[in-house]
């Protein structure tokens, strides 16, 4: 189903039907478990009471790395907005534990009445991201690559980069590499790299600079910086919009740069395109932050301890 979404930008009805049936089957057996760990929600767009009925006999943990509650309370359709706006708040209020990736999400969970809320940063597996050789990118006989990784649903953020990249392309040779989404920017040398789980680390590692442009809306404030963590794990300096968890991940001028305006983006990218030593220093700093705080080897034991506290087996 994910492959279909990447190819077409949407989900097939048949795929969705099968996914709901699998989920319902799993929920039917849920009372035999000590604890359920739920990413976001079990049955999106069904009334709260349907999901609650399945969850009444087992403690459950809700895990959020996106502000998915805004799918409901900010929906453009007034009727849907009214009917579903409290759906996730009600689920959070009954959860044994709500785990979130940043403070924006934590504030929502607390306001919903969740009895236990913990911020655990989004993390990735250190073993999948081997330590990059320091400075290796700067001796390659090729144009520097600026990397963006994403899905069709986030491709509209690339519009933020159109003007600054066009400005830079008039002065410098570089490649704008897009992992996961084909996207053409006139007068900019772009390349499309298909996304697969097996190749994503290698695809990012080919880059020199990682970028994460965002808008500043309630949805983006709930984002947890996954792209930036991947870039830093691969030893890349980063340029990002200072929204949500990006503000915690990036120390401006140390492991990357913040950019709000077209001029900010052009200036930050120019610094990194033209200063190999700066890229190395910032890349090393980002990798160190990843190892200290944003890998599952650090966050995993914390999650296990939290889960044990709320499990039926405790």
Q: Your description of this structure?
A:
- The chain is of the alpha/beta class.
- The chain folds into 2 domains: 33-122 and 297-310, 3-Layer(aba) Sandwich (Rossmann fold); 126-294, Glycogen Phosphorylase B (Rossmann fold).
- Helix content is 43%, strand content 13%.
- The protein has helices at 2-8, 13-28, 48-55, 70-73, 78-84, 87-94, 103-111, 162-169, 200-205, 218-221, 226-233, 246-249, 262-274, 276-293, 296-310, and strands at residues 36-39, 60-64, 97-100, 117-119, 145-149, 175-179, 190-193, 209-212, 238-240, 256-258.
- It has a 6-stranded parallel beta sheet with strand order 7-6-5-8-9-10, sandwiched between helices. The chain has a 4-stranded parallel beta sheet with strand order 1-2-3-4, sandwiched between helices.
- Helix 3 (48-55) links the parallel strand 1 and strand 2 (60-64).
- Helix 8 crosses helix 13 (262-274) and helix 11 (226-233) packs across helix 14 (276-293).
- The protein is globular and about 60 Å long.
- The mean pLDDT is 92.
Compile the SSE list and pairings.
Elements: H1 2-8, H2 13-28, E1 36-39, H3 48-55, E2 60-64, H4 70-73, H5 78-84, H6 87-94, E3 97-100, H7 103-111, E4 117-119, E5 145-149, H8 162-169, E6 175-179, E7 190-193, H9 200-205, E8 209-212, H10 218-221, H11 226-233, E9 238-240, H12 246-249, E10 256-258, H13 262-274, H14 276-293, H15 296-310
Parallel strand pairs: 1-2, 2-3, 3-4, 5-6, 5-8, 6-7, 8-9, 9-10
